[in-house]
Amino acid sequence: MTNSEAPTDATVRLQHIGGIDTRDVTLSPGVTVLTGRNATNRTSFLRGLMGVCGSDAVSLKSDADEGLVELELDGRTYTRHLSRKNGRVVFDGTPYLQDASTAELFAFLLGSNEARQSVVTSRDLHDVIMAPVDTEAINAEIRTLQRERKQTEQELSKLESLESEQRRLESRRSELEAEISELESERDRLAERIDAEDQTVETQHAQRDELDETLRELQDARSELETVRFRLQSQRESVESLRTERAELESELESAEAADIDRDEVTARVEQIRGEIESLNTTIADLQTVIQYTEDVLDGKTDLIEDTLVESTSSGSVTDQLVSSETITCWTCGTEVEESQIEETTTRLRGVRDERRERRTELRRELDELERDLRSADETQSKRQSLRRKLDRLEGELDNRTEQIDSLTEERDELAARVEQLEREAEDKRGQANETLIELHKDRNEVEFSLDRTRDELADVNDELDALDEQFDRREELEAQREQLTADLEAARTRIQSLTSSAVEAFNEEMETVLDLLEYENIERVWLERVERRVREGRQKVMQTQFELHIVRTADSGAVYEDTIDHLSESEREVIGLVFALAGYLVHDVHEDVPFMLLDSVEAIDSDRIAALVDHFEAFPQFLVVALLPEDAQALDDSYDRVEWGDE
């Protein structure tokens, strides 16, 4: 939301959700307090709001076949439909988020929230903070960048080794150009002397007409020879241009590497993954239904189990019987079991559900990658076919012009021989007196021959230099590419470290602030430390980043000592768990994805401290929705909106 936009209310409508028949609630920006006793469906409302935001942690009312959660916000409407099909609940509609996993971790802070529980159960806090980050994708990116940079450095090293060859060829080209210049000067000098001698011979020779005829033939032959030489030079230049174009096309073809995939195998794998995802969706929905039903029973929602236990012959209210003892009647077999056993089973089911979700996420990632590979393979194949057609046409033209060069070279050699023959005939006709003119013609013919051979060699040298220049032209591009790859590699390597460092910093800052606000007298400091430990991974040991939670307490004597989370009160543990979730909320910028933060199950914290926590958390989300008992809600600021919840 920009500064120029006024905050708008959010309207939530529920039908047949959890223990709720129908309920409409309007939430204003800021804090909304849901006040009411336990088992009044406040949690059902919060789970419904989670559901319309994209979470699966929402249940359908036990006596309903269909349910609906609708959210109106910023002029748009988001929906989540629940329906019972073949004994399981399926979801449909357009939720606020396509992937609500990060919000479930750090914004929807109900009692079962994983981030909160990870502190209480001493889980690896680093893994929880990094859960939304695809570390495997980052590591794969690092490996790809390392491979590309190594290839770039090898190309640059190859160019350096070619520099000496380039210097040798440039030196040889200079020598040939100087030699050609000298030969052309010599040819022009001989031509001037021949013209002068021709005039002298014409006045002295008695057989002028016959000699003139021979000289005309000689001149025509020389003219034709010059024409052939010009055409030959033009063809060579054309060939040089075509070779340059061919090199560019070959380079482009080489850069468009053919995709190394088995299309049939990839297609089959795509279909397999889609089937497995569909199966996982079914399993996750079934598990969520069971988990939610169990949680609702444990929360005391009697309307969810009365139908199941209608055959019970016990006297009194079923809810009273379940709540009044430490055991509970199992709704699957009818036997009495301890509530802790059901909670333990529910925890295991959550673990299985989370494993299926993680597997589904991995499969979706693999499916996206395979589909990208197929599209890339199609595009690359089309491009390579087009380039090959162009190369084929170019090769045909090169072959044609090369044949013309060979033909013209042969014609040039024949004309040179014809000129030499005519010079001998002219020599015979002119006699001894014209020996100087004959020698001049012979010398010029030899110069022309040397000139042709030198030009041929120069053309070959230029071809080699052009080929090298094409490679050297890429030097600047390769150096820039190497620099960019190095920067990208460094950024990828520090991305995870930056996130973990930010998480530690956010937790420590927020924890210090909250401890000052709540005034826990015997807690001196609570802080996270980022450590690197060598752990076994398969057959080898690798360095792994972990978070250590430190708790510094003050004894009655005033001595300071470090304690563990197990020795803290339930209130203190809950506060640390909430602050840890808030750190994840800040590090992953969850407020940019979802405007809601939900807070429930904070009864272990005393009223004044709950009020201080709510005041502190209010600064972060657009909407903070808090479920509280009436006596706890009284301690909050009177300016906060309140929604009363009673028995429904």
UniProtKB/TrEMBL annotation:
Any idea which UniProt keywords this protein has? Coiled coil
Q: SUPFAM superfamilies from the xrefs?
A: P-loop containing nucleoside triphosphate hydrolases (SSF52540), Prefoldin (SSF46579)
Q: Which InterPro entries match?
A: P-loop_NTPase
Coiled coil where?
A: 353-502
> What are the start and end residues of every segment in region (Disordered)?
156-175
Spell out the Gene3D superfamilies in the cross-references: P-loop containing nucleotide triphosphate hydrolases
Is Lyase one of the keywords UniProt gives this record?
no
Tell me the domain of life: Archaea
Q: NCBIfam families, per this entry?
A: ASRP
Q: State the similarity comment.
A: Belongs to the Sph1/Sph2 family.
Q: Give the protein's recorded name.
A: Chromosome segregation protein SMC
Q: Which organism is it from?
A: Haloferax larsenii
